[in-house]
Design goal:
The protein has 775 residues and is α+β, with helices and mostly antiparallel strands. The protein has 21 helices and 30 strands. Helix 8 packs across helix 9. It binds pterin cytosine dinucleotide.
Length: 775
């Protein structure tokens, strides 16, 4: 920055919102193209069955149906399968993983309810959907396995017949001497938790439209996605075209939450059909179809053993993860449990550590990224385990955390998983949260209330660190146009995060121009050809930095031209209040308009800029590690098991912030995602592999009345890995929140001998735990 920031750090309302709030957004389903046809997908009603025959003749002869195609028609025409974006060999080692082929339409057998079997294209959507029932499929149902532990057992039904078992991969990391640590420890505990399966619920279900131009042999693909660049890069080869022949557009996207950070069968089928039928094709999912066809999240069983000396200082940790990865490897499926493993140290200074992970195929929808992706699981098991150890040793859970945090002087901290925690002051965030919640008095109140009839009080603490800001690079070109408009072409692909506003703030400060002269373009590979998209809370630290560096480069170009006009040295130039002048001589100045006109007219020094533009990628210098402490206070009615959240204080640290309003929004939304898991959400399969929670009536989403106003505070510990010192915030609060609520619930009932409650904390589950405590 030059001079004090005016926009960065200010609570600027989102520039995106007026359009969205007045119905002027443009989502995939708003795109209407002449002669457009509509696709519907026939999905398996069985979780596991052999396909004998698919007879499409009756459906094909239905009025309005244009074509009916199966995997036999489409798969051989593709140059590959649905992609997996994980370096499987690099992560798991040669031959130590299974990577089953994943075709957009299955041919041999179906492996989960919802597995796509055939497609119909018709003149309108209703015809396409109603004709689905005229496709006849002869299935031979097979035994089903939906549970990861059951799928690992001898004799379990095998999801992919080319192998003997369902073990998808194993991953292990170890440091120090864990066995010795446990043998010599004063106290050891073991806790097993279930991190239940979740379903992402962006407001806009997935939708895809594609058009093929035979003349130029190129596609335009509109899709409701977080990752237009990755889709172009991975699907163009499968469609047999060069990347620049698959223009991929993510228009306005109504939320993603990780679920849309994937590459789906429909994103391949729709362009394929557009080319095959020589007509634009459109598909939009219903909510129930989304539940059966978009990836699910979490679904881990985590077993943690902790060992401590007599003071409560951790001497060892041993984590076992059993990850249900569903039927296929989707784009990042095998990476998600590994992300749990990467965060095996949590916020704690533990000398001896081991982590074993097994990924397991089952007859369920594939599991992949959902807000936090692997890191909520790591924090949840850690924070539940720390509370268990605190109870076991009779140490206050806050005090136990304090004794074990990685101290500030140990940063940057190399982890045994070869990452570098950039910066952290864990105790400062904890102290701030304790102060706001008034911890001491709350504990007194809790003790008093236990002696009385009525509701009991519980206090839950969760301290977290997470890994985000993934590289390796990002684009963020900046150009000052002839009329003074500044155009930013970002490689990030916002779908609710407010990048247009934040990137404008960065540029407005760097160039000292008004916000409304800045246009931020994104999500279209023809307009912003370079990019790595939005996931893993990477956009601000990596994409925001790219924008900053390019804006600064344009400013330097401006200085060169201004110096020429003022007959001064470029090194003496300063930009203040939007004007260039010699440092200390503000009266003689030139404006951006003067600089733009001079550049356009060639009135620049020799070798000076011919345009005011910079489009260098930012090569990142490592991930960022936001952290914080969340504290939840609950009241439980021991007669009914009903739980009420009384207060929620969170202290999050994502370094300096670009826009506090947006960050607060990210934290509020993130907390609700985490508390939703702890409180009510769960994707449930029956023994035949039917998704029982297949509609919003059955899948319990959190609602506003369940929560108090969140009390959100921050500490600010800059990261050294980027010039603004910023860390990501999009997932942090989801990662920190679920354990705070569950710890509070267990704490409320600890005097009754309750030591664990699995999520979601339904009244029935809490009531049963109280009943079986016997007190
Ligand atoms: N920000 C800031 N200061 C910081 C850090 C971030 O002002 N120190 C701002 C950023 O400029 C950006 C927002 O906060 O506008 C989030 O930034 P970042 O943490 O970099 O995360 P991403 O933009 O990469 O977004 C991804 C993240 C993820 S992984 C999920 S999942 C998620 C989330 O964002 N999904 C969301 N937040 C979501 N919010 C909405 N509305 N919808 C989703 O689908």
């Amino acid at each position: 920055m030059e001079g004090p920031p005016k926009f960065v750090g200010a609570k600027i309302k989102r520039r995106e919102d007026p359009n969205l709030l007045t119905g002027n957004g443009q989502f995939v389903t708003d795109i209407k193209i002449d002669n457009m046809a509509y696709m519907a997908v026939l999905r398996s009603p069985f979780a596991h069955a052999k396909i004998n025959i698919i007879d499409t003749s009756e459906a094909a002869s239905t009025d309005g149906v244009i074509a009916v195609l199966t995997g036999a028609d489409i798969n051989p025409e593709l140059n590959g399968t649905l992609p997996v974006n994980v370096d499987l060999e690099g992560i798991f080692g040669e031959g130590a993983y299974k990577d089953p082929p994943h075709y957009p339409l299955t041919m041999d057998k179906v492996r989960h309810v919802g597995d796509p079997v055939a497609v119909i294209v018709a003149e309108d959507a209703d015809t396409a959907i109603s004709a689905l029932e005229f496709i006849f499929v002869d299935y031979d149902p097979l035994p089903v396995v939906t549970d990861a532990e059951a799928a690992l057992a001898d004799g379990a039904p095998v999801v992919h017949d080319q192998w003997q078992d369902n073990e998808g991969f194993r991953w292990q990391v170890s440091g120090g001497d864990v066995e010795k640590a446990f043998n010599e420890a004063h106290t050891t505990i073991e806790i097993r938790v279930i991190n239940q399966r979740l379903i992402g619920n962006p407001i806009e279900p997935r939708a895809v439209t594609a058009q093929y131009d035979a003349g130029s042999e190129s596609f335009t693909l509109w899709t409701s996605t977080q990752i237009p660049h990755l889709i172009r890069d991975h699907l163009a080869p499968v469609l047999g075209v060069a990347g620049d022949k698959l223009r991929t557009i993510a228009p306005d996207v109504g939320g993603g939450f990780g679920t849309k950070g994937d590459i789906y069968a429909e994103e391949l089928l729709v362009p394929f059909l557009a080319r095959h039928l020589k007509r634009p094709v459109h598909w939009v999912s219903t909510r129930s179809e989304d539940y059966l066809s978009s990836v699910h999240g979490r679904d881990q069983i985590d077993i943690m053993r902790l060992a401590a000396d007599e003071t409560g200082k951790l001497v060892g940790a041993n984590l076992k993860v059993i990850a249900n990865t569903g039927a296929y490897n989707q784009f990042s499926t095998p990476l998600i449990p590994v992300l749990t493993g990467w965060m095996i140290e949590g916020v704690y200074d533990v000398p001896n550590i081991n982590c074993d992970i097994v990924g397991v195929f089952t007859n369920t929808v594939s599991v992949d990224a959902y807000r936090g992706a692997g890191r909520p699981e790591a924090t949840y098991i850690w924070e539940r385990a720390m509370d268990r150890l605190a109870t076991e040793m009779g140490i206050d859970p806050v005090e136990l955390r304090r004794r074990n945090f990685i101290p500030p002087e140990k940063f940057p901290h190399e982890t045994i998983t070869s990452f570098k925690y950039d910066s952290g002051e864990y105790e400062r965030a904890l102290d701030k949260a304790l102060e706001f919640i008034d911890y001491k008095n709350l504990r007194q109140e809790q003790a008093q209330r236990r002696g009385q009839n009525g509701c009991v009080l519980g206090i839950g603490v969760s301290s977290y660190v997470e890994i985000c800001g993934f590289g390796p690079w990002e684009a963020g070109g900046v150009e000052m146009e002839d009329d003074g408009t500044v155009v930013v072409t970002t490689g990030t692909s916002p779908h609710g995060q407010g990048h247009v506003t934040c990137w404008s703030q960065i540029v407005a400060d760097a160039l000292q121009v008004p916000l409304d002269t800045i246009v931020v373009k994104h999500g279209d590979t023809a307009v912003c050809p370079k990019g790595m998209d939005t996931y893993g809370s990477r956009s601000a630290p990596v994409g925001g930095t790219a924008v900053l560096l390019n804006a600064e480069a344009v400013r330097e170009q401006g200085k060169t031209v201004a110096a020429h006009l003022l007959e001064a040295a470029a090194g003496d130039m300063e930009l203040s209040a939007g004007k260039f002048h010699v440092r200390g001589v503000p009266d003689r100045s030139v404006s951006w308009q003067d600089v733009v006109a001079a550049t356009k007219g060639g009135n620049v020094p020799e070798g000076g800029p011919t345009e005011l533009i910079s489009d260098e990628n930012f090569d990142y210098n490592g991930e960022t590690f936001p952290f914080g402490t969340h504290i939840c206070v609950v009241e439980i009615d021991t007669e009914t098991g009903d739980l009420k959240i009384l207060r929620y204080v969170c202290v999050d640290d994502c370094g300096p912030v670009i826009n506090p309003l947006i960050v607060e929004g990210q934290i509020f939304g993130g907390v609700v995602c985490g508390l939703g898991q702890a409180f009510c959400e769960a994707a449930i399969y029956d023994e035949d592999g039917n998704l029982v929670t297949g509609t919003m009536m059955d899948y319990a989403l959190p609602k506003a009345h369940m929560f108090p106003t969140f009390e959100s505070h921050r500490t600010e510990t800059p990261t050294p890995v980027n010039p603004m010192g910023i860390k990501g915030i999009g997932e942090a609060a989801t990662i920190g929140s679920a354990p705070a609520l569950v710890n509070a619930a267990v704490d409320a009932l600890s005097h009754l001998g309750v030591t664990n409650l699995d999520m979601p904390l339904t009244p029935e589950r809490i009531w049963s735990a109280i009943q079986s405590s016997g007190r």
